[in-house]
User: What shape does this take?
Amino acid sequence: MLKHFQVPDDIAVRVDVERLRSVTEQVFMHCGVPESEARLGADVLIFADESGIDTHGVSNMLRSYVSGYNAKTMNPDPQLKIVKETPSTATVDGDGGLGLMIAPKAMEIAISKAREVGTGVVAVRNSGHLGAAGYHAMMAAEQDMIGWCMTAGGKAMIPTFGAEAQLGTNPIAFAAPGNNEPVFLFDAAMTSIAGNKIGLANRLGKEMSPGWVANADGTPDMEGGSMVDFVANTTRAQLPLGSTRELGSHKGYSLGVMVDILCGQLSFAPGFNSLARTRRAHFVAAYSVDAFGDVDEFKENMDGMLKGLAATKPMPGHDRVYYAGLPEHETRIERRETGVPLHPEVVEWFRGICAEFEITFDLA
Amino acid sequence: MLKHFQVPDDIAVRVDVERLRSVTEQVFMHCGVPESEARLGADVLIFADESGIDTHGVSNMLRSYVSGYNAKTMNPDPQLKIVKETPSTATVDGDGGLGLMIAPKAMEIAISKAREVGTGVVAVRNSGHLGAAGYHAMMAAEQDMIGWCMTAGGKAMIPTFGAEAQLGTNPIAFAAPGNNEPVFLFDAAMTSIAGNKIGLANRLGKEMSPGWVANADGTPDMEGGSMVDFVANTTRAQLPLGSTRELGSHKGYSLGVMVDILCGQLSFAPGFNSLARTRRAHFVAAYSVDAFGDVDEFKENMDGMLKGLAATKPMPGHDRVYYAGLPEHETRIERRETGVPLHPEVVEWFRGICAEFEITFDLA
Assistant: This one.
């Protein structure tokens, strides 16, 4: 991830991954989430934290989940229901639960169908925040499958030439396994920047870059400006990937619509027909590599491709070229050793919530 | 499409769609393509021409196909082979044919599987140029299915932070049907601009915009520059959608890798393991809406969404907001009436090839 969004080393508190996991599980359980679900939800969050996806880890997200459970807008013990299914598809109702725990179950259904008939495609309605979409896509890669995960909901992205937000940030995650090389794992919003990055940058006191948001009248802000201004003025919607029509914003916008269709329309989610989405909808898919050819050959071929991309001659000012999933893999190795760098404000929040919930606080 | 790439009205020769179709079919047949295949290939090209996708119509592409057949690098009468299949998947060898005619057959396989088990996913290797990917995705939408089509091959796109091209422009097409509203039909390269647009702009004497290509050392060219300079200097690779890391080029780059995996790796296409791709590979998929829920309800919901997007309040300087497929739909209605505007140079090429192939020239 960009250094822009990292907690500066001189103030970061390094917290052991397993301690962070344990506290997170207990927070979920205190909110009424059953133990196995709490473990799963914490695993999704900690995956983001240890991968350096700080926008989707405990620091940015856990407090909003706690608020949702407290306000009873989120169901802590949802009963997932398959509304319709065929040999390769399922339409699932998430019963108002948190996407963190709903999506892995949807992906399990997809993987099981892919094992039977080659592919499994599952659309999910009536769900909550997904966490890092990459976690769910990765589940398929671990089973020698290609994995997709997308999520839609809310209004953040402004259509090209538009003056008002109409779509969510609508991320796409995609995973494909190699043999010895780290999994290719892409996970990104179809806006030029993830929505959560704005909150994170705000906490870090960083300014926005040009091309991230629209001005109040909808025109792309190619000058940049302070976070405070953005947060105060909700009419400043986020720009699609591509930022301006000339740079290709119609592509980011259309990919956003595609995600809305696959998640919201394909799951028949309430409100998606009128752009007035109440809850979130997801899409997961698994394609079994074995259905297309020899798995070992595929993974060897993937290694060749991934090594080739990483060996690309770099441009001036850079010493390496990456592929998606490679920096996160390296960060996981590092953070499992040295801990997750949390902002002191986040540690204080944990201290407070642990006191309130009567959980042992041992993070710092 | 951007006015930038349209033949100026004062020099354009308006050619009747059906005459253009007939001449194109005859050109294919003269190259050894069987009649039914020639008809299909012409249909794919004419769809682009009448939709205003001039980059992928007869003007830009037909001459390169004729060269391929003449040089015997392309097989005019390929025998498509299913190498492996499961209830929902197939791996197809295109026998060195032109993607224009291979992809519709792959899509027919996908549609037929989707009808049986809910989804159909087909990876194709050993194929040629695809034409407009949207044509193939649209086939699924016409059967009340969601359609995907992607294609990979060649080297045009430079990875983020890289100094050399490693991927094709790797377009994604996606179609989903409404009821009364025109189909949502997205079709775009994962570079900031389609490769073919460079040739087209060159013929029109237009300069490149900032953010489209890299400088010779790999750094993003955010100044813009002449087409001639780009064409002369092949080290100036195309930038991924997003153009710079700050604007999100890692997303365009990673979506490009995703397309390479789905097309090249999933079909076990030669050369894709070493980034030395010889032929093209494709990916098509069809998801039956009926497998997920009620088709009429889905199409009504889609109409609501599409109407809502088109009704978005526009930003200053614009009087409308579009969704992908809407302007092309309107252009089709217009061009079926008034003809396809061809550059005089293209008309002259047709005059020449008709004389050489002893085909009646009746375009102007």
Summary: Residues 99-117 of chain A form the longest helix (19 residues). The CA atoms of residues 55 and 86 of chain A lie 36 Å apart.
